[in-house]
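step: validate -> pass
step: tokenize input -> pass
step: predict -> running
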Amino acid sequence: MDSLNDKINRLAEILGKNPLPPTDPETVDFQSIRREYEQQANLEVQKLQQNSKQQRIEQLHGRSDLNPGWTFANLQQDSQDVIEAVNIAQSFIAAHADPNWRNNSSHMMIFYGDYGRGKSHIAGAIAHELIAQFETTVLYRQLSTLLEMRFFSYDYSSTDNIAQQFRDIQKELLSVDLLILDEVCVNETMLKKNAQSWLGNLLRQRLVDHKNCIMITNHNLSELENALGNYCFESIKEYDTYKVKFSGPSRRKSITPAIPEEQRAPSYRPNQI
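step: predict -> pass
step: emit ->
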């Protein structure tokens, strides 16, 4: 008749586990063996859960269209405006640990300032952290790209399926937990009325569904209000809004070399005598 140890070893062989070392049948402690297998099973379950979470996070990163280099580790915190922006960003991220904060309110962060000040970088860093910590769904898009896609979606003779593509992106714009809109009204003093209505409706629907937004612009706040129009800007006012101004130096490399004043060629001035 097989001993308990033999039965356990056969079971271990079926499961692909290592067999137990030979022991005296009289000294076999069934409870100890059971605890050992339970611990091993729990470790394997935890490993599977970690692998599954990592795969989900990688998929979220892939769908977000974020620059992988936009992280806090890569950020140059060399001016007071960036330091303050990072503090606000960290508070915004930490607040997501509160389910009531996440599920019962809508939040809008407006990053405004000149080119190259780190606005998009910090917005991307926020998104990367939220994906990693809370598996937040994120979508990064330039507003001008969306408006162009929307415009071309009305070309019913098109054969590139642009209308369906826009309908698909519209669903994502409404459903993602965090929407980052970059280059808002870039080179625009005022959006066209139909674009104002579309963006205003998008923001209002996200507000109702308790979805968060980050809006990035080179305009100051008064210019942004004029560019978006009353209907759209009133939608923004309904959010819990955080306004973050970037006024430090540009982090982008200069392409044209600086020329001393005395070496510069005289530029044309009209009506000179």
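step: describe -> The longest strand covers residues 107-113.
step: cleanup -> pass
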